[in-house]
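Hi there. Long-time user, first ticket. I'm pasting a complex I've been working with (about 641 residues overall). I'd like to know whether the download I got is complete or cut off, because the file seemed smaller than I expected. Thanks.
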Amino acid sequence: MNPYVTLIIILVGLYGLISSTNIIKSVFMATMIESGVILLFLNLGTWNGGVIPITSDVSLAIVDPIPQALMITTIVIGSTVTSLALIISIKIFHHHGSIEWKDLKR
Amino acid sequence: MNILPIVWVFLPIITAIIMFMVKPNWIHGLVFPLQAILLLLFILYIGHLRAFPEDALLVFGGYADWIGISFYADALNLTFVGLTIVMFFIIMYYSFKANRKEKKYFFFLTFLEGVFIGLLMTNDLFNLFVFLELTSLLVTILIAYRKAEQSLKAGLQYLLISSVAAMLYLIGVMLIYYLFGTINIRLVAEMMSTYEDTMLMRVAYGLMMAAWMVKGAVFPVYAWLPKAHGVAQSSISALLSGLIVKVSLYLIMRLHGDMFGQPYGFDQVFFVLGFVSGGLGVLFAMTQKDIKQVLAYHTISQVGLMMIGISFGSGNSYVGGVLHLLNHALFKGLLFLAAGVIIKVYNTKKVYEIRGLFQTMPWTATLFLVGILGITGAPFFNGYVSKTMIKYAFADDALWMILFQAINVGTMISFSKLLVMFTGQPKAGIDVGKSSFRQHLPMTLMAILMLAIGLFYQPIIQTLYGFTAYDVHIGSLASLVDYVLYFSLGLTLYYGVIRKDAKPFQQIRDFTISFPSLNVWLLAVVLVFLGLTLR
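Hi, the file is complete. Here it is re-exported in full:
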């Protein structure tokens, strides 16, 4: 994927964080930024026609395995963050009956 | 012997899992032997490092160091590890009785200890990210632990803003990997001097520093901190303010100082931002009526002072900043813990409803007073040493000195507000209960440590940093007179101005930043930092 497309995903996520008044939307926008960063990172050392790095033949043009190893970890952490954020959102809904940021007093 | 840093990470985590799985509640007592073992291993490791300095680097799994995950120990992170072990011991001892039946509380707290030590020890940029996110997750759970309305909201805001900050940092890591082909901090630092200064490197620098601004609650992205630290349990607040928030300063020192090594003019940016957040922190703290909010806003101000110190990179001011970091952990921890005891007895957080502390709880009141003397920088106490050392580099510059003293007087004004609690007639029906030894012992320990650093700062700084501090003249007549004069100014201003609670102060008190606008500020910080690095 073109890195500029992933940059657009990140910027849309940032815009969403600024503009959304709803807690659930904020959570998803944070997830969206994360997806953009993951896609951006996966661009490194990857190209069309690159061979997957599960081979012993060193003459092949294998893609760089490190970004993929790092990003699978990021996906795991990201899903944990998202699920915790959603659980807290549910608790907030039970307390307030609303998931708008402005309805929560400080 | 050289694998001890891994033990520091895994021993707490394994203990946490055992405590969670074994049913009876007495198993929570395991946290104390755990802290003792950690402290023993820490001392052993320091002794080992003295004999074999080459063991400081530890690469896992027998890989080459440019590809494997590694830990690296130096004076900077070992001091932090020591502080972590001491702080966790204090917090656990303090909160043991109140939470002894809470399985999850000890599970998360002990787990956090392991993860936090890992965050300090790691020498790998991505591993750092993993530990950073884990720390945010565990801290969120601990903030929202009581599931009260405010703490849920504060926890969610903290979680979202720090995960966005971590993503900014991750983009920086990606650029570093793209440029250098490795994410080992020490190797990148070695290569940094030979690489030409490209745009991408500057972008990576700007994004990483913006991320640390969020983690450290520096102006203008501070708004999550008073919410989170103000609503958590007192023991957790003490842990967050004393220890967890400092990780941003540690990472600034590690990445800005050690790894990039070229400031891009950011030493001045940190210097100015330190003053801005120092000033705004006390301005907000002065107007608050909630005792924990006052303390939480003071954390912002004190982090600002530390940033002023560490922005110099070396010399007396820098060491003063690093020492202030340790000192702040002690006195802010002490203040939060004492506030916890007071809030429990008086059953209110409102400053104006608490009266006659010296009558009802003399020992708690004395400890609280020691904390106040420390944070306002009274001679003989540790705050005086580090604040005087921070001033060293700009002591001749009138403008910055006036601002610095203004922050100091602001601190005194807001603590004059807390001093009011000490006198007067307590409300009828206050039941002190029997004095809790378990809560007062760790607080007394902190007070003793504060005095020890205040009196014997030179040998301590010499051992920790191998640096001979200049003489700050503790106990000289001039410093005592200065302190008394500034404090009287603070008291006068408090009774003359703040006590009247005029309209502007009410507005400042009610000023909050909502989560969407916090993100606007975050974006602004990112853009400004990128602009400054790319100029």
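A couple of notes from our side: The CA atoms of residues 11 and 114 of chain B lie 7 Å apart. Strands of chain B lie at 57-59, 70-72.
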